[in-house]
Amino acid sequence: AQKITQTQPGMFVQEKEAVTLDCTYDTSDPSYGLFWYKQPSSGEMIFLIYQGSYDQQNATEGRYSLNFQKARKSANLVISASQLGDSAMYFCAMKLSSGNTGKLIFGQGTTLQVKP
Amino acid sequence: NAGVTQTPKFQVLKTGQSMTLQCAQDMNHEYMSWYRQDPGMGLRLIHYSVGAGITDQGEVPNGYNVSRSTTEDFPLRLLSAAPSQTSVYFCASSYQQGQLFSPLHFGNGTRLTVT
Description:
The structure holds 2 protein chains of 2 kinds.
Chain A: E1 3-5, E2 10-14, E3 19-21, E4 24-26, E5 32-39, E6 46-52, E7 60-61, E8 64-69, E9 74-79, E10 88-96, E11 104-106, E12 110-115
Parallel strand pairs in A: 2-12
Antiparallel strand pairs in A: 1-4, 3-9, 5-6, 5-10, 7-8, 8-9, 10-11, 10-12
Chain B: E1 4-7, E2 10-13, E3 19-25, E4 31-37, E5 43-51, E6 54-57, E7 64-66, E8 76-78, E9 87-94, E10 105-106, E11 110-114
Parallel strand pairs in B: 2-11
Antiparallel strand pairs in B: 1-3, 3-8, 4-5, 4-9, 5-6, 7-8, 9-10, 9-11
């Protein structure tokens, strides 16, 4: 079954420290994409970073990087130098090339709180 | 550039009432979709459209209808509201559903309560 699992319902991090949010996925499709979205308390969904299954290098976008371990089926989000504005819920999601539905399969989310 | 615009932001309905959630995008995206967000369950796909005149069911379509008469608009209709439809609804669009790297652009959501 196609599934995304985020096992950390809530996380705390001290301001300026790095934090890793865990994401594991399950699919038998060879071609897929992995996404991370941020949802602040205001409610909007903000796209952060993308990793393709065939990408050789881990994706990076500013302070965000994706630790992609294909054999372990994990796609953890690393936020470096945490800021108070990083406090939000974070969702990992997967898109499959098969089916052509454009559907994103979402995990349950992880709430991150950055402490001053 | 407005992106994806959803209206209303909040809505309270009584059981059995019907309503339409509006969604419009100005990015000329082919693909549009509706998700619902419930606590502990992430987001789940309700309906989607790969172009004007084409719609299909997602994971949780029961109780909802959609239509896509133009590229820009993709309204979601609740036929007879039930308390189980209390949720936050997101409209999202992307350039092309077939491209893996085609991130969804989300509207700001509609918080619906059915009493």
